[in-house]
Design goal:
Blueprint lengths: L7 E5 L3 H12 L3 E5 L17 E4 L1 H8 L4 H6 L1 E4 L1 E5 L5 E5 L8 E5 H13 L4 E4 L2 E7 L4 E6 L5 E5 L2 E4 L6 H6 L6 E16 L14 E5 L4 E6 L5 E8 L12 H11 L1 H4 L5 H7 L2 E10 L2 E2 L3 E3 L5 E2 L7 H18 L4 H33 L3 H16 L7 H7 L4 H34 L1
Parallel strand pairs: 1-2, 1-12, 2-8, 5-14, 12-19
Antiparallel strand pairs: 3-7, 4-7, 5-6, 9-10, 10-11, 13-16, 13-17, 14-15, 15-16, 17-20, 18-19
Helix pairs in contact: 1-4, 1-9, 2-9, 6-8, 9-10, 10-13
The protein binds flavin-adenine dinucleotide.
The site of flavin-adenine dinucleotide (FAD) has 32 residues, from helix 1, strand 3, strand 9 and helix 9.
Length: about 450
């Protein structure tokens, strides 16, 4: 306990989820220590100097609002009110995400956002941050963690009343929990991996392709996307199978890169002068879906973000969900004062089933993005959804809108979308029968 009798929280992992949680706990007056493996990101000190961006949407925005940083975050983000679909022939089609430009997702640099949250947490005198601090083991019952300073090599045991595991998809704390009786865990990799590439800013700092859009090159079994950065560049990501005739494995030389990208993404290649170098220098990442249960151990350990639920990135919700976890955990702590076990139980009860639904949604959206976004059928469905939403704004909300622009829990959003579609299909069927009946009646 800290001097005022409040429990002390030790957060392992100072990524987006851990640093936002530190802000919430700091604001609530708890003593907090954050141990982060990497060096301090603040001041633009981004590992490898690479700008990797993420789409921030409503759930994340609300969570950031509550700790007073949203205005700063918005200043460093680029709004994307829709997708720009790039055909093989270089054709372009803009598809708005929502009713109007106010329903936009926001491209933000992961490193800059993380740095901003660390700086915000550090403003609380009761929050201490430690960098180059690698957690190598935990004692769940004693609530202690072994931490090595990766610069000096010194190690120490840190202790608190609660360990918060915010150490990402390969969390060491969750691994320790996997040895507990009746702890559920599963993980599945996609056959596709991803590689980050770049479209640099134009001379003078302008954008070489449309600034305010999430660009997609849908190509059936694979796709490429690009998100804008504030400095005029785009972070480009290709999602492609690891193995097979047409895959990462099949590319061996710069000439292979030029041939494949030239055939598939000619309009983008024209803006990618460092394509072959980027391709061979940047690692190929894998895409994992990971589920675990429960997300806590007694009143001593609680999991957050990718540490308990890694989802593939195709709904743009992983970080947003981690932020919403922090918000919900903060609410649960506030509504169960002095009873950490109850707070963690409630947090797990409120969140887990819905984030499991998000995991499925994210996988199915991969098929939609790479296979359907360029198709006429997809466009027709989007038009129908838009029209229904316009006609019945309080009753009909497209699933994407509910997941991205509201805080309706993911599971409820999916059930509501199914109900809406059922009603629309029944009404359409009845109207069709009435019309057919009228036409037949007219002729006989
Ligand atoms: C290609 C791709 C694109 C994505 N795009 C989006 C998007 O557009 N929108 C979105 O919302 N989400 C997106 N995501 C998901 C998002 O990146 C994650 O969900 C988010 O980063 C999770 O945050 P986190 O803090 O829980 O975990 P992490 O970001 O993994 O952070 C964990 C932190 O813990 C630290 N750590 C790890 N091990 C230790 C240790 N032993 N000791 C101390 N510290 C440790 C790490 O250094 C890291 O800082 C994307 C993911 C990928 C792979």
């Amino acid at each position: 306990m800290s001097g005022d009798g409040k429990p002390k929280f030790v957060i392992i992992g100072g990524g987006p989820g851990g640093s936002l949680m530190a802000c919430y706990l700091g604001k609530a007056g708890y003593a907090v220590e954050v141990y982060e493996l990497r060096e301090d990101l603040r001041g633009g000190n981004i590992p490898g100097g690479k700008s990797i961006n993420l789409a921030l949407s409503h759930r994340g925005i609300v969570a950031l609002e509550r700790v007073g940083v949203i205005n700063e975050v918005m200043k460093m983000s680029v709004p994307m009110p829709g997708r720009m679909i790039h055909g093989r022939d270089g054709s372009l089609a803009f598809q708005p995400y929502g009713r109007d430009d106010s329903q936009a997702i926001h491209s933000v640099s992961r490193g800059d956002l993380n740095g901003l949250l660390l700086a915000a947490a550090d403003k609380y005198p009761n929050v201490s941050l430690f960098f180059n601090a690698k957690c190598t083991g935990v004692d769940l019952d004693a609530c202690t963690a072994t931490v090595i300073d990766t610069v000096s090599g010194e190690w120490r045991t840190v202790s608190g009343d609660v360990l918060v595991s915010a150490d990402g998809a390969f969390s060491g704390i969750r691994r320790a929990m996997q040895r507990l009786n009746r702890f559920d865990f599963s993980q599945t990799y996609l056959n596709h991996g991803y590689k980050e590439l770049t479209i640099p800013a134009a001379d003078g700092g302008g954008f070489r392709i449309e600034k305010n859009a999430l660009h997609i090159w849908p190509r059936g079994a694979f796709m490429m996307i690009a998100l804008p950065n504030e400095d005029g560049s785009f972070t480009v990501t290709i999602f492609w199978p690891f193995e097979g005739a047409n895959s990462f494995e099949s590319i061996k030389t710069p000439a292979d890169v030029d041939r494949f990208f030239g055939e598939q993404f000619a309009d983008a290649v024209a803006h990618m002068p460092t394509l072959a170098t980027d391709y061979f220098e940047n690692e190929t990442g894998s895409l994992v879906t990971m589920r675990s249960a429960p997300w806590y151990y007694k009143d001593k350990v609680v999991l957050l973000g990718d540490a308990c639920h890694a989802v593939v990135p195709f709904y743009g919700q992983g970080m947003n969900a981690a932020f919403e976890d922090a918000l919900v955990l903060d609410e649960c702590l506030a509504s169960s004062p002095g009873d950490l076990g109850r707070a963690f139980f409630e947090y797990d009860r409120i969140r887990r089933e819905h984030v499991n639904v998000l995991a499925d949604l994210a996988i199915s959206n991969f098929v939609e993005m790479r296979d359907h976004t360029g198709s006429k059928r997809f466009l027709l469905r989007k038009k129908k959804e838009k029209l229904l939403n316009k006609l019945f704004p309080h009753w009909y909300l497209p699933l994407y809108t509910m997941a991205t622009f509201t805080r309706i829990p993911y599971g409820e959003a999916v059930s509501r979308a199914r109900r809406q579609d059922l009603i629309v299909n029944v009404v359409a069927g009845v109207l069709f029968l009435i019309v057919v009946g009228a036409v037949v009646g007219w002729f006989i």
